[in-house]
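assembly run, all chains below
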Amino acid sequence: MYDFTYLKPSTLPEAVSLLSSDTEAKALAGGMTFIPVLKQRLARPTKLVDLAGLGLSGISVAGGKVRIAAMTTHMTVADSPDVQKAIPALAKLAGGIGDKEVRHRGTIGGSLANNDPSACYPSAVLALGATILTNKRIIAADDYFQGMFATALEPDELITAVEFPVPEKAAYMKFPNPASRYAIVGVFVAKFPTGARVAVTGAGQSGVFRHAAMEEALGKSFSPEAVGNVPTDAENLNSDIHASAEYRAHLIGVMARRAVAAAG
Amino acid sequence: MGFEGIGAAVRRKEDQRFLSGSGHYTDDINRHGQLYAYIRRSDRPHARIIAIDTKAAGAMPGVAAVYTGADMQADNVGGLPCGWQVKNKDGTPMAEPPHPVLAVGKVRHVGDPFAVVVAESRQAAKDAAEKIAVTWEDLPGTASIADALAPGAALVHDDVPGNLCYDWHIGDPAATDAAFAQAARVVKLDLTNNRLIPNAMEPRAAVGDYDRTTGEHTLYTTSQNPHVIRLLMGAFVLHIPESRLRVVAPDVGGGFGSKIYHYAEEAIVTWAAGKLGKPVKWTAERAESFLSDAHGRDHISSAEMALDAEGNFLALRVKTLANMGAYLSTFAPCIPTYLYATLLAGVYKTPVIYAEVKAVFTNTVPVDAYRGAGRPEATYLLERLADVIAHETGIDRVSLRQRNFIPADAFPYQTPVALQYDSGNYQATLDAALKAADWAGFRARRAAAQTKGKLRGIGISTYIEACGIAPSAVVGSLGARAGLYEVANIRVHPTGSVSVFTGAHSHGQGHETTFAQVVSDQLGVPFEQIEIVHGDTEKIPFGMGTYGSRSLAVGGSAMVKAMDKIIAKGKRIAAHLLEASVDDIEFKNGAFSVAGTDKVKTLAEISLAAYVPHNYPINELEPGLEETAFYDPKNFTFPAGCHVAEIEIDPDTGVITVVNFVAVDDVGRVINPMIVEGQVQGGVAQGIGQALLENAVYDGSAQLVTGSMMDYTMPRADDLPSISVGTETTLCTHNPLGVKGCGEVGAIGSPPAIINAVVDALSDYGVRHIDMPASPQKIWSIVRAGRSRAAA
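ok done. output:
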């Protein structure tokens, strides 16, 4: 990697000020994507602002919402009895990200700020209709994801926490890339009194997306049969050596059906 | 201390240091004042080098030197040599284009090195390397065999027409044609053997050192055969006499063939260290390994078997195209010829065979031996073909194999493709494997799977391989430019402990354990008093290294030969001490005795007498107790066996789960059953990797698409079943231990067993053949097509 200045501020305003005063400075959360990028010399930041000293870690459940602070690791979420009780699908999703080493370092805030189109968390945030809390504002999930590696975050904006409404039921099913173990297709389904939400990661050319036809079908009947035959248009899906767009379209149906079945 | 001789499952001595992080690998070596090399590699598949400007790079902080191919040429550095010359059908030698250490004139594959920066730190070298400016003229790149052979294809080497390295054949074409003319039936199969990227856990590394006061060069390198590297690099590349060149291969973290060859980086650090008078270190990053370690396999074949009405094999005809990559790696030419086509009889008594092999240059990483090397390709072809024959003739696939087996009483057996098998019992391994896999009970398991919506299949493979390639005179006549013997030096110390200096090299095989077991068994010396030394040309007299499952069969035999000399000398010393005739001295359990008496001297007593020769036959015998032996085998060894795979397919996703795997192998005498089990399991893991997961993919312009672990699927623990390993033994008849070798059987026997099981599972979908890897997408496409056909 190229040389950079490493900084570890202890307050959020300090971190924001460091980032806003230098457009070439970069925030470092768990670093599970960013450190490999640095090692391959694909980025050349002037400063690395480590967010680990900001006290942004922890989980709380209150008022029908699960609040997870931005620097909480996947392992912490996976192992949290509170999350396991309130939204077991979310704990399970976190426990299936990467490998054990990644889960001990990677954070929810880092994953969402990066918005990798094959990452697991975006599907949960979008399907559960979570809100992203930043140092500036509150962003609804539907407004947050803006394409591959693109989000509503402004350059000097840091995620502080994510708030998940507790659904009636939910589940996540991932078809992993055999090599990278990222999602080739990941489908998160959630049932709320107001209806069902379905979000798909790994497959879309513009990153995570909601599946309107499946939501409509599940709104009428939240059952595997209802969603199993809802087709997905392959038009805007990714295609690579592991999975063609057609295969991904098919897998979305299979994963959705299995997710609904798992949600019970 | 229990029984630690031949046959004991002794725990591996070396694991104490490996598992506690105390191994000493090449990258652990740091010399005083050491510099670091970073190599600039082509990111273009094929391009003419118009100009390389290194000025800016040379001016970067901490940079000691920047070198290009022109600098090495100016210093009279030779190209990387090829160790095997294959002849064309017409007797002319293969095309053998130069392989400069750093590219000159053209780069020929992504990863081709063309410049090196030597600097005070890795970081400084890398920073400077980015400042090297190159003017390129891009040329069309070809990655596939078909593209390279197409009329008008761009030439990888301007002086190799048609990109054809050689056009070789073996067998009797006229007799084969005649047999085909008589056949009741002919069954054909076209198939591909997918290209693999080895990925040993330890990336390659090299440290060059130079002592100005003595003029001695030292190379520390991740090698499977340090003496071979000393020979090739010293004689052909850097022109350094053996007496001034030491090559050390310390602990090496896996090789699988990829660390046999002499690589550019070894020559670069040795040469640069001499130029700069300072040690120079290079360590590969994983991305570099993908682009610079020799790849494996990459064959396209068409095969046809002539059969009589009863399903007896009458004749086999095979045409194979083999991808050599952009340059000839050290042993590349012999893989698709003498390690492949000579194995096409398999375990079958096919009376006539004719095989033609064309080797082709492409703009890809060079291809060379990878665990199994030629033999997995031959086995895959035969065992897939056997299943297709069974399918098309309606003969049961087990019966078909049994009908064509070389019977147990037919050894020695001369095949029509040069090899003579010394021993074997294919029915025995088959019976044991079918029993262990509960082949008979499969129907019920398939039905049970069906009720869960799963497609279950079972597959079998009965294979043979050839290990310990030899004898030297024969391989020499076939084009080898090296001898293939092995060397052992055995030093019995004054108090009776033993050091063994072996030319074999351990990079995970456990030689420190198994070799000590052999010595303990033969000399009666306690296991823990035996030291196995390998991997250093300064300590070991000579050696050809470890590959092709040769270490015990060849290296172990050299040890036995050296021990025989120790015992013979010990008898003469004992005869003197015990005042008896040499002919009356017996050696057993570590002691020399006069036959029929209680007069006895232990090996330690004899050894002490040899080193403190006060009472010693000094007029007839030299003092000391140390012997060296070179062993040149009379023949290959021929491990064989039967693998059975059982798989389950999720038809909704195409995902295959290997639910059971049974390997029953005849590896000759087993020295350590635990190590054999581990070797077979490791090989099967790689075979399952090839069959289901691994594939090196180049795009149409010859860029490597699977250039990292993000896209290249190495098998992981959760991809694998528990692998059951059994052995059935027939002894090798021509080496003293009766051993055959176990390093590669797993990777050779398993791929067709897996694919045969996959095809079996999809038998209702009209599938005849599936190319490896049987990826979920491929399986899903087959299931989808089958379902839509059924619906129509």
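Chain B touches chain A through 25 residues (CB under 8 Å).

Chain B has three domains: 34-139+201-254+259-292, 299-469+635-791, 485-631.

not gonna interpret more than that til we talk
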